[in-house]
Amino acid sequence: MTARVVCIGIATLDAIAAVDRLPASDERVEATDGRLAGGGIAATAAVTLARLGVPVSFVGRVGGDAAGRLIREGLADEGVDVRGLRRDASRSPVSAILVETATGLRALAPYLGDRAPIELTADDLRECAAAEWVHVDELGLPAVAALGDADIDTPVSVDDGTGRPSIDFGRATLYAPTAAVLSDRFPARTLEASAEACLAAGPWLVATTLGGDGSIGAQRTAGGIKHASAPASNVDTVSTLGAGDVFHGALLAALLDRRHLADALRFANAVAALSCRALDGRSAIPSRDEVDELLTAGAGVAAGGRP
After folding, report:
1. What is the C-alpha to C-alpha distance for residues 70 and 82, in angstroms, rounded to an integer?
2. Residue 196 main-chain phi, psi, to 5 deg
3. Is the pTM of this model over 0.90?
4. Burial, 225: exposed, middle or buried (Cβ in 10 Å; 0-12, 13-18, 19+)?
């Protein structure tokens, strides 16, 4: 089955422990729970799409070690096409994560591997050309230039969680930064004004999460710029690990459904909120039925939400 979305970027193996409080230096604190789970920005977005029934493939690199094997198996078990995930002689990205149960605060120690650029093969390029979206994180950004060199005009979604990399905004269709990154890259009095400045640089759509305050988006249309917002969904939260990555995957699923912007944000908020029911960032990612149940129990989908 042809992938509707190709995700390119980092895939990790996360060791996660829940603690009553974060330890001080050289202190031992007993954990109350622990998980070993897959992680990574683009990889978690890919799992989200698969859970929502969207055919998706992942392109990236892991090591030939045990962690690399677990990363690959975890994605494949979720139904993600992993033919583009290469294993080489490097060491796989791994992360140690502590989550404070009372506050949800986290301490992270990620090892990101050698961070060498992901080189697209001829098969990868054909997959991207046939897809409806290509989604990249910071590690996958160099692949965007390769798409241009190959004259592939598939819409590109960019997850920007750090604000570090240089981005060709003229090649980005959807730009998904954190609120802090959006403000830093496009300084303005309000986030809405920052989003408008970003749209002027090239993207068709900008969307960002606001944590417990939901999410906002801005979109270029024939009639001008359209702003939208959606409240957060009310779910008992265990950990917010990976929630932003889940939001971006769910937003792509909503756009593939041809939902209007406000409805797409509402849908993505619900998926991200439900993913926070577990300690790790993946095991609680919901199915479409679970999302529909949450939205129906709450405000529901606004009338006229689909075109």
Report:
1. 12
2. -65, -40
3. yes
4. middle
